[in-house]
Structures are given as structure tokens and as C-alpha cells.
């Protein structure tokens, strides 16, 4: 089983510091496959906010985006292909917002819905202690935070551990 998929974005600044835009996105499936993309900012975002605090957290600079970032349209297309028929989940509403912002900036439809991970966990009747244990185990294996690929992989691992635990019962 490869689905569901988990998504995580990094952004130009933290929401409390201003108008942010997506700069990196990663998607990880529970089969262990993952992809990450640096997003070259759209011209429309040129005057939006950038914070050094966020840059210190994720380690992505404007220069890095100019040199290594992919065109936003390419990122959106590759994301949609990678997701395929999987349902997509995130641990924060902001991830859905940044996907919408990316699509709208391209005047493209949002390629898939981003659902709240908590709903998935509740629908599968995972108890809080199970979720906490899976999260702690995933953090031990993937301790780096504020890197989209690592964050998405950690969330996918949490779901995988929970599903494996459910099968073992």
C-alpha cells in the first residue's frame, strides 16, 4: 500500500511576520517514496515578505531559490503526478493554503485536496497514546525539523507505524 500521502511546505516567512509564499514542498507516501521541490518564486510574489527567522529554520535562502528552484508550474505538475490517486494529508491548515496560493498564482486548478491529518487519525480510531508513541518513534528515526522532505517523511512514518500497529492487533 502506498497511500495516503503526506505533504509539508516551507515558506518565505512565518505567518505572524507577514504575507508568505511557498518556497519548498515535499510529499511522502507511506510506502517510503518521497519527493521534494524547491519552488522558484513567482513574479507576483516578488514584493511579498521574507523573514530571516524562517530562513534560519529551513536553511533556504532567496539565492538558493533563484539558482536551484524549479518553475512553479513544473512543481505543481510533478506534485500531481507523484500524488496520483492518493488522498493527501497535512498536519497544518497552512499547507492547504500554500498549495492553493501556488495554484492560484499559476491560474491553475488546485490539483488535489489537502486534508487535515487529525481527521484521518480519528476516522481510523487511533487513540491519543498510540499517536504519541508513533510520533515519538518517528522523531527518533527522523529528528530534523523544518525541512519539508523530513517533515513529510516523518508524518508518513507516523501513519505507517499506526497502520502496522493496527494490523498487529
Report on the structure:
This protein has 169 residues and is an alpha/beta fold. The chain has a single domain, classed as Ribonuclease H-like superfamily/Ribonuclease H (Nucleotidyltransferase, domain 5). Helix content is 48%, strand content 15%. The protein contains 7 helices and 5 strands; from the N terminus they run βββαααβαβααα. It has helices at 52-58, 62-68, 72-83, 93-105, 117-123, 128-141, 148-168, and strands at 5-11, 22-29, 34-38, 88-90, 114-116. Strands 3-2-1-4-5 form a 5-stranded mixed β-sheet. A hairpin with a 4-residue loop joins β2 (22-29) and β3. The longest helix is centred in the last third of the chain and has 21 residues, at 148-168. The protein is globular and about 50 Å long. The model has no long low-confidence stretch (mean pLDDT 94).
Salient structural properties:
single chain; 169 residues; alpha/beta; Nucleotidyltransferase, domain 5; five-stranded mixed β-sheet; 7 helices; 48% helix; globular
Question: Can you give me a brief rundown of this structure?
Answer:
It is built from 7 helices and 5 strands.
